[in-house]
Amino acid sequence: MSNVYFNGFLLTLGLIMAIGAQNAHVLRQGLRGEHVLLTIGVSAACDILLIGVGIAGVGGLFVANPDLMAVARYGGAAFLVWYGARALLSALRGGRALDLAEHKRMSRGQALLAAAGFSLLNPHAYLDTVVLLGSIGSQQAEDLRPLFAAGAISASIVWFLLLGYGARLLAPLFAKPMAWRVLDALVALMLWAIAASLLLA
Hints:
Shape: globular
Order of helices and strands: HHHHHHHHH
Largest sheet: none
């Protein structure tokens, strides 16, 4: 039975470790020291919701319904293009360092909406959690599915905690404005690349 738990844990960890839009957002919030626990909590809660939905068998609905997939794809691409534009504008303006006294902080509501947006408006998250994890989890014996889900949920929580709070180790580097400009530019390019892959799929 422990193998089922660790299979869920390792599979989920492998899927979410790739730096995507959601991870980049958690990393940036961690570097800023801005609503870190809230961002981690919302990101993990959304993952838990999607994992549960997938293992319950809802992933098949997305696969079987092209219109639903199209709505998710275009809506997610629009969100990523808009947020990428914000990151590029920040990179072009420059002059920002890891100075929390001068940094204009998000409100709690803005931080919550941003974390939820990166978690729920990104079709890649649905593919990873609802479709892939869901299809594998639903193949487990019925009495073992909760154990698989527990492993997957544990991996999500552990990863976001490491990413959000581990970002502080990079704080000395991001005391330099140029490091932020490079990060913002890379985030913008990554978000637009993901949006392009969704639109061209």
